[in-house]
Amino acid sequence: MNPDNPVLHHCAGSRSTRVLWLLNEMEADFTLVEHDFPKGLRDPDFRALSPLGRVPVLVDGAQVLSESGAIIQYLCETRQRWDLMPQIGDALRPSWLQWLHFAETLAALPAALFQTEVSIPEEQRSEPMLELERRRLDKALKYLNKQLNGRSYLQGENFSAADIAVGYSLFFSSRFVSLEEYPDLAEWYGRLKRRPAFLKSFPAKFAA
Ligand SMILES: N[C@@H](CCC(=O)N[C@@H](CS)C(=O)NCC(=O)O)C(=O)O
User: Fold this and answer.
1) Which residue numbers delimit the GST C-terminal domain (predicted)?
2) Is the pLDDT of residue 206 over 80?
3) Which residue in 29, 104, 147, 198 is a FRET match for 121, CA 20 to 30 A apart?
4) Which of 53, 78, 103 is the last residue of a domain?
5) Whether the predicted pLDDT of 207 surpasses 70
6) Which ranges of 50-92 would DSSP assign to H, the alpha helix?
7) Dist. CA 186–CA 170, nearest whole Å
8) Nearest residue CA, atom 9 of ligand 1?
9) What CATH number is given to the structural domain containing 188?
């Protein structure tokens, strides 16, 4: 373990996969610390790094960051990966930032469905609430599908870290919807899934 390397705290299949995928795209040197979900996140040593007990956490020297969007931007900036994030002044920068943050607008919807599934006994679940979240998810996916029409990636012909952020949200969403209903979205996701860094970052059962 090289003490100069950034350390990523990760749970398989969780939001920290965004950061793992980015580090793999960058072919960066890093140390991966894996935790069991959710039990491992209650560990006091981990809680000292992440007060909410959530992943990802990236420790890079004195910096400790725990929002996947912030970590993506931080890594692209500090590693000067302008192929993955447009620089200030680039015409694509504002829409790149918009996509980076849209990723969490989208992920919040499957997260609500997932939390209900794992934390609330069936008889206590609110069907109207679940139906509302499903409709909001469908609306967001239809929007994304439309944006991807005629494009290989979110910003045109070139892959960027925005595709990683939103691509993970689509992975999460696909647990609850069939992508057949969103053909342009499905094609884009198929393109992402063929990337070697994707295959390295997701558990094999999800990469198929
Ligand atoms: N907005 C945060 C969300 C982080 C998050 O909620 N991570 C989930 C895993 S996908 C987690 O650690 N949940 C544990 C918990 O809520 O106790 C990000 O994008 O990094």
Assistant:
1) 89-208
2) no
3) 104
4) 78
5) no
6) 68-78
7) 9
8) 14
9) 1.20.1050.10
Atom 19 in ligand 1: which residue has the minimum CA distance? 68
Give the Cα separation of 162 and 54 in Å (integer).
21
Q: Provide the number of structural domains found in the chain.
A: 2
| Helix ranges (DSSP H) in the chain | 16-25, 44-49, 68-78, 93-119, 127-147, 161-173, 183-193, 196-201, 204-207
How many Å apart are CA 194 and CA 159, to the nearest integer?
A: 13
Whether 69 maps to a domain, the answer reads yes
Q: Is 40 in the pocket of ligand 1 (CB under 6 A)?
A: no
Our answer on whether the CB atom of 13 is closer than 6 Å to any ligand 1 atom is: no
Token pair listed for 177: 């919807």
Q: Crossing angle, helix 68-78 and helix 93-119, to 10 degrees?
A: 140
Cα–Cα nearest to 100, from 19, 25, 23, 173 = 19
Predicted confidence at residue 2, as pLDDT, reads 82
